[in-house]
Amino acid sequence: MRSHLSKILALSLMFAGACGASAPAPEAAAPSLRAGLKISHTSVYVDDQEKALRFYTEVLGFAKKDDVSNGPYRWLTVTASGDADGTELQLALNDDPAAKAHQQAMFQQGQPAVMFYTDDVKRDYVRIKASGAEFTMPPTEVMAGSIIAKLKDTCGNLIQITQLAR
Amino acid sequence: MKIKLTTVHVNDQEKALRFYTEVLGFTKKTDFSQGPYRWLTVTSPEDPDGTELQLELDGDPAAKAYQQARFKQGQPAVMFFTDDIKGDYERIKARGAEFTKPPTEVTGSTIAILPDTCGNLIQLTQLARW
């Protein structure tokens, strides 16, 4: 619980706003010896976290991982079912006007806000559709032999599911 | 279904590739072009089959407006976790990056923030050990 608390505090800083910044280019760059940095989270903005949690778990089949609140802020994540230590998807409440404008534009342009990979897009399509989701694109072969499908997450976003060509 | 991808919009993919590999220390994973479109990702060298970070060209006006608003508000576009934020800070700084916030203890964790030179702020986070 304490590690959850530290996580929520660290993460709420991302959305609390910090200092303004200029961005000068770095100069010399040496080859990397190590990268201690982990790419362990991605996020999607949702207009209703409770509804999103239901959709991402009950319809898509992910499992809830973190759910910690601090005042009005709620840190909520899911992971792939059976991969609890894998990359977490944060379901972030979209209360920022700039983020909302971006989300709406992406949706109107038919651009997915988040993408998931699968080994069998047709199987997932049938399963997710049977759970009541609305697809805007059924499984469709695109360039390089990959198959993609798109659906609404009911919380303001399009989701793309991608099966890469073998 | 697997969660294997996160995305950051950048205003120059070549420059971003240099920054994310040579300065931050990630490794290029996929680099695939079709016409003007370039699909470019990096991963952690310690976990090459792990989650990929896509460096996507910021060609869309809505994405650009959002990126600029976040930057002005001091909000990071992407966050990475580390077990050694001070080591990473020294290493990244020695490669020429400029931090807007050096490692700073906040309740429960230590964070640092730096610009990625391509339009974004990046937050590094080390959770406190209890």
Short description:
The complex is a heterodimer of chains A (166) and B (130). Chain A has 166 residues and is of the alpha/beta class.
Oligomer: heterodimer
Question: Level of helix content of chain A?
Answer: 25-40%
The separation of the N and C termini of chain A measures: 42 Å
- CATH top level assignment of chain A: Alpha Beta
Record keyword descriptors for this entry.
heterodimer; A: 166 residues; alpha/beta; 2,3-Dihydroxybiphenyl 1,2-Dioxygenase, domain 1; four-stranded mixed β-sheet; 30% strand; disordered N terminus; B: 130 residues; 3 helices; 39% strand; globular
Please explain how this structure is put together.
The complex is a heterodimer of chains A (166) and B (130). Chain A is α/β, with parallel strands linked by helices. Chain A has a single domain (40-163), classed as 2,3-Dihydroxybiphenyl 1,2-Dioxygenase, domain 1, CATH 3.10.180.10. Chain A is built from 4 helices and 8 strands. In chain A, a hairpin with a 5-residue loop joins strand 6 (135-141) and strand 7 (147-152). The longest helix of chain A has 15 residues, at 2-16. With 130 residues, chain B is an alpha/beta fold. Chain B has 3 helices and 8 strands, in the order E-H-E-E-E-H-E-H-E-E-E. Chain B has helices at residues 13-23, 61-72, 85-94, and strands spanning 5-10, 27-34, 37-43, 52-57, 78-81, 101-106, 109-115, 121-127. In chain B, the strands form 2 sheets. Chain B has a 4-stranded mixed β-sheet. A 4-stranded mixed β-sheet of chain B has the order 5-8-7-6, covered by helices on one side. Chain B is globular and about 45 Å long. The interface between A and B is large, with 63 and 75 residues.
